[in-house]
Amino acid sequence: MKVAQPNRVTRTYTQDLVADPARIFPLLCPVREADWIEGWNPLLVLSETGLAEPDCVFLTTAIPHNAIWYITRHEAEAGRVEMLKITPGVTACKLQIQLRPRAGGSLAEITYSHTSLGPEGDAFIESFTEEHYRQFMRDWESRINHYLSTGKLLRAAQA
Fold first, then answer.
1. Mean pLDDT of 22-31
2. Could you tell me the CATH superfamily of domain 9-150?
3. Are 40 and 28 a contacting pair, CB within 8 Å?
4. pTM of the entire structure?
5. Is 123 helix (H, G, I), strand (E, B) or coil?
6. How far apart are CA 68 and CA 54, in angstroms?
7. Within 13 Å and on the Cβ side, how many CA atoms surround 109?
8. Which of 57, 80, 108, 119 could form a disulfide with 15 if both were Cys (CB 3.0 to 4.6 A apart)?
9. Which helix (H) or strand (E) holds 44?
10. Distance separating alpha carbons of residues 91 and 86, to the nearest angstrom
């Protein structure tokens, strides 16, 4: 048995969103994300309802192996969702999203915690800098806000 200290990075960012949590929460779903994320196309979604729910499992394209996502918490009334993303041989990731109302919209606190599973994961952890994460979160924020404001997908040429 090998027991080792994890090589892990955790990043948190708070987005300022233009709608209330009840309107945003359904969009935090492997199916509904295609409405507002250009190119989002899970390979498979395993769900009793066809949407995000506790124990929903979905697969997305990743290198060197497809990523497996598992929704561990899905609490619409609390505005909270949590999922695990495993990219075999690369990382195990916990994603937590907490929505909170604010005047005229919502705040979304989004935390990714990546743990390396080997050399490829170590390289990923090193590249997952605060600046990289901030850019990723700002892009996500602009895309979901565009969708919430217009009902349309923000295309790369528009971004």
1. 98
2. START domain (3.30.530.20)
3. no
4. 0.94
5. helix
6. 15
7. 9
8. 108
9. strand 44-46
10. 6
